Amino acid sequence: MTTAHRPSDPAGPSDPAGLSDVAGSSGAAGLSGAAGLSGAAGSSGAAGLSGAAGSSASVPTASSGGGQAPLPGQAPLPGQAPLPGRSLLRIGPVSLLIRRRAVLVAAALTVLLVLAVVLSLSLGTPYVAPADVLRALSGAGTPYDLVVFDLRLPRVVLAAAAGAAFGVAGTLIQSVARNPLASPDVIGITQGAGLAATVALTSGMAAVLVAPTALVGGLLAAVLLFALGARHGLAAQRFVLAGVAVAFAFRALTEVVMLTADPIDGLRAQIWLIGTLAGKGWTEAAWIAGTLLVLLPVLAWAGWALNSTALDDDTARGVGLRPVARRIGLAGTGVLVAAMVTAQVGAVDFVALVAPQVARRLVRTERPPLVCSALLGALLLVLADLAGRRLLAPTQLPAGVLTAAIGGPYLIFLLLRGRRRSS
Questions:
Q1: Which of 46, 185, 191, 293 could join 349 via S-S bond, C-beta 3.0 to 4.6 A?
Q2: Average pLDDT, stretch 50-70?
Q3: 90 forms bridges with which residues in the sheet?
């Protein structure tokens, strides 16, 4: 078996600029962080072009079967051999080029996710042995059916669905922005939903209307983001800078609303803004899963269209693509998923930021892989919710607190990695 092909890392050259600016700010939310994102976006674009061009220029000659190997992401023509590390799958008239390492990583993440789900269903009061959990899930009938099905399973399913949705949204937005720091909680989608939810919670609105109101807020933030960043074909740098500006504006308005509200209502809004799965279950999971199912054809297209996000506009047009329409479609899908999941579980930060980049490093691709990012996001949020329930039991920590604890060291890792590369 040939070794896996490892293209140049487009995020690599962009990290030093972006991270050095982040270090100069008071965190990713600092004003100078906007400059960091700008620099990272610009550098990343150049890096992405370099990586794409490098991949095209260094396409290896087929070692067998004759002909020349196809471009990355393209199915080979008759007479061509797939790139090293990839296999060709033909289903009737459809040809798929599959990266074998991505399949192995996806399988490993699926196994870890299943183990995390069983562990989350087992731990608690009362403790349920994993064997009893599996028997309950199989419908064999156990004394723990009520605990497993009614008390724990809805929350675990919600964590998995929300984590997968955050992973998908982060992958799409980071690919369009060409920036590893771009995520829904950086470009203003989370802050728009948070402002709307804060207004709903502090104005006496019925609890059942909080999630729809938050969804509307997230979508309005997306509209404002596209209005500000749509010039010049939704360029990556302008898109990220517009998102940071929108995030700052909505965050400031949210703080104003909380300071002028009743303290109890302000505390409820604060808990929502942190992000928690407590008291939620099947209804929220059904909304998130339904959104992903409805968007499944779009996501299938997105998984293929992401291959072109590293190309500059002239190169993309040269191979017959419409880069502006693709960027708008990918970014629009990402912000829609992000707005929906944030409306259901609150502002759970860092999952959409961390999952795509960790998945990209595991698969060793030039862009975040969609499926592996979704699986890793689900795994992260299931583990974060489990830790939030058990670390200080009987006190429960919001899942957003634990994901922030994961995201902080991740940002430090990016910072150190960026400095090492720049030196």
A1: 185
A2: 40
A3: 95
